[in-house]
Amino acid sequence: MGSIDLDKPRYDQSTYSGRAKHFLLLTNPLNILASDKELDEAKKIVNEFRRTRKMPAGYDEDKLWEKKYLYDSAFHPDTGEKMFVLGRMAAQAPMNTLITGGMITFYKTTPATIFWQWINQTFNAVVNYTNRSGDAPISTKQLFASYCAACGGALGTALYLNSKVKNMKPLYARLVPFAAVCGANFINIPMMRSSELLNGTPVFTADGQRVGESKRAARLGIGLVCISRVLMAVPGMTLTPVITNIATRRGMFCKYPLAVIPFQLTLVGLCVTFATPLCCALFEQKASLSVASLEPELQEVVKKKYPKVKEVYFNKGL
Question: What's the chief localization of this chain (predicted)?
Fold first, then answer.
């Protein structure tokens, strides 16, 4: 069993194709259907193999990895806690299909814009908090303040953009939700992970020795997540409005106007199902930072304790 290392992903994370395969399994929407009993069983199997290095009875390599990916989809990599089901990346495709469908379908009135942006940012806040990096706790007060700031920023962006496109072509109005989501991501993610920005995220040597907490690593990780999340939204929130606009101009929905809703939901569903893992794979989950880029006090720690170390590693979050 020496070739199986459950502390690392199954596929080579130095290549995009390897990361894509990894995240396709990790974000599989079917993972959220697993019961607590199945998740606990997967955790037991993974921990047992790590401890004994022996293949559990009735298991082969493929079945063991299947349990490992189910485990990874539900348990936080730093804290080991079972994550809230709607905050798991496996819930991204079904939840974003419904929410994005709502945002690009009901965008014409202010109440509808407020409602769907609030729903979207509440969901994003849950996802961002659930998939934060590090193991430091965040107070309820700080969490509530971050949530209010994230939602307020997103709603303000959406309402401002809506006011600017009232007299423009319908396509521009259809794209307002995407622009609002882009702006909101750069508010929501840092706010919901503000504890990392204030206190730093844990950084480690290549062999897993904890060096300390770095705010610079936190800023890098959060920046990378912001980029991948915006790109994740691009297909569903830009292609869908463009295709729907073309279909509407050609009279596809004249006879059955409500058919536009399942039409858009189908397009969004296809887009987010594949965009989620493919955009998560843009950057390595285990990000690296040169020692020279760390805070001076951490550089000193590394020089004293690990003189040969040139890079440190950290979980950038998702």
Answer: mitochondrion
**pLDDT number for residue 34:** 93
Contact 125, 151 (CB under 8 A): yes
Residue 147 in this model has a pLDDT that exceeds 60: yes
What is the average pLDDT score of the chain?
Answer: 86
> Running DSSP on this structure, what letter comes out for residue 8?
S
Grouping H, G, I as helix, E, B as strand and the rest as coil, residue 102 is: helix
Can you read off the two tokens belonging to residue 219? Answer: 């800023």
Question: At a CB cut-off of 8 Å and minimum separation 6, what does 57 contact?
Answer: none
Alpha-carbon distance of 252 to 263, in angstroms, equals 10
Tell me the C-alpha to C-alpha distance, in Å, between residue 140 and each of 144, 153, 212: 6, 20, 24
pLDDT digits (tens, 9 = 90+) for 16-59: 999 999 999 999 999 999 999 999 999 999 999 988 888 888 88
User: What are the pLDDT digits (tens) for 31-42?
Assistant: 999 999 999 999
Q: What is the dihedral of CA 256, 101, 180, 286, to 10 degrees?
A: -150
- Coil vs helix vs strand at 211: strand
CA distances from 109 to 104, 106, 158, 228, 243 (A): 12, 7, 11, 29, 22
